[in-house]
Amino acid sequence: MISFEHLCQDLNRLVGLTISSIRPGSNLLIKQIDQKNKTIEIVDKKGKSRARPFSELYKIWLELKDGKPVHVDSVLGGSGTCRNQPETILGNLPYVEWLYINGKKHLILAEKKTHETGTLKQMDSLKVQDLVCAKGKNEDKAVLTIIIFDDIRKGAHLCGELTSSSPVPQREGIYNIKTSFQHILLVSQSEINPPIPCGCYPVFTGPKTNLQGIPFVFLGKKYELISVLGNKLFYAQE
């Protein structure tokens, strides 16, 4: 698999090229790659210059390297404007393809080079169908865990380091980390009413239970905090 360092070196091949965006009308001229300061100088269709940091591409690459489709807006959510620009830069590398899932643009890392540098390639529709089906099956198997923090930003940062995945902001105070078999919600204590003690809670769903718990509401859904042989967990009735 390609390393991020290799990817950064490949950016040099885009210098001087005007590259197309996935959604027409947002083409970019790649003016300069500053490897020392880790920035990409671009010029948009209006002639406005700006520097995009390598750190944006790194956040996206952390998701791409797992071989899953990546929704760039979600990865970079809340981090600035013109988030289609990093998407355009990566999409013009020869081992990155693009696709639509549920009407939203995604990028995916191919196993080998599939198109020329400075061009875009849409993923084959049959491969997209297989990918979506596999993604749905894996998500059905995913185990949901909710981790509550009093300092959500610090908690999200540390969990991101532990999982080597970039927590994706769902909204203020809530972050997502998803893998093939695990779905983790990182939640600020202030998001749960009434407040639940900070900690890590597995989430179970099932028919009505006779166990007595503490009811609370999270994201509009009713849960109960129950104790099973001294272990705390969240329970939601189906």
Low-pLDDT stretches are: none
Mean pLDDT: 84
What proportion of the residues is helical, as a percent range? 10-25%
Number of strands: 14
Characterise the protein shown here.
It contains 6 helices and 14 strands. The two termini are 41 Å apart. The strands form 3 sheets. Strands 8-9-10-7-11-14-13-12 form an 8-stranded mixed beta sheet, with helices on one face. The protein has a 4-stranded antiparallel beta sheet with strand order 1-2-3-4. Strands 5-6 form a two-stranded antiparallel ribbon. It is elongated. Strand 3 and strand 4 form a beta hairpin. Helices cover 25% and strands 34% of the residues. It folds into 2 domains: 4-137; 142-237, Roll (2,3-Dihydroxybiphenyl 1,2-Dioxygenase, domain 1). With 238 residues, it is of the alpha+beta class.
Question: What labels describe this entry?
Answer:
eight-stranded mixed β-sheet; 2,3-Dihydroxybiphenyl 1,2-Dioxygenase, domain 1; 6 helices; 34% strand; 238 residues; alpha+beta; four-stranded antiparallel β-sheet
Write the layout of secondary structure elements.
Layout: H1 4-10, E1 18-19, E2 28-34, E3 39-43, E4 49-53, H2 54-64, H3 72-75, H4 84-91, E5 96-101, E6 104-109, H5 125-141, E7 143-149, H6 152-163, E8 168-171, E9 174-178, E10 182-188, E11 199-206, E12 214-218, E13 221-228, E14 231-237
Parallel strand pairs: 7-10, 11-14
Antiparallel strand pairs: 1-2, 2-3, 3-4, 5-6, 7-11, 8-9, 9-10, 12-13, 13-14
